[in-house]
Write a structure and sequence with these properties.
about 290 residues; seven-stranded mixed β-sheet; two-stranded parallel ribbon
Amino acid sequence: MKRPAPPWYKCDFHVHTTQSSCFSDQKATAGQWIQAALDAGLQCIAVTDHNDYRKIDEIKVAAAGKDIAVFPGTEISCSNPKIHVLVLFDVDRYGKDIQAFLEKCDVHGAGGGSSRGTGKSIFEVCEIARTFDCLVIPAHIDDFHGLSSMTHDQLARLLDKKYIDAVQIDNQDIWGETGFKEGDEDAVYLKLQERYNADISIERAREWQRVYLEARKTNIPMLTFSDNPHEAGDSHHGLWGIGKQYTWVRFHGEPNLANLRQALGSYKDQIRNCFDSPEHPGEDPL
């Protein structure tokens, strides 16, 4: 008899709480945050405040008894906040575990919740994260605070799985599989203007696209998460944006770090980002 396929989980692994100083509604409660995730149909979520850990335990309490797995984590700002990196811990870890990681990266209380971050390079941060057995995912690589400041050689070094497990992308629908060409600039400019509610130069767009295309050439999972904007085109965070972008993960077993790592290792069969699968993948075969 054919065994049923493992289920797909709708996941958002880049979400901020009121502990991030750029979260718009500072009166939002942990219960409202979890309810927003449930309303978005999420089954897995990560707490990734800017260089902070202090809301994680409260969120875990609010999620108790609910049908959602919470991955503790942080979004750490590397090298004078030019590059942001998501660091995810296992579901049985707590705020103190993320605090220990941040302190190892020389991020202490004064920088918590802001983009102040660490003076360490992204390579140093990745190496420290490995000693904590974390998952490491450079955030929004084709966007602000992504990887466009890196040279070709630096980027090639980083995309080696020695350092990272996956990347977060934001604009796959604009770049496509091969990138935009001459003659497409006006359309691309208008799409970016609508998405960011700002003028994004074509020169900057080409730099963002360069990073995306380099990542696409490699054997690295390309994931999508929300970074929960307060509203469309707003760089502040809020409840509205939770789950607006997401990734489907086919877990063999309970949602935890080991099974997530296993899924990323077989990402062509077990991972679908929301650009590739806006709806539930259904019985998409393994």
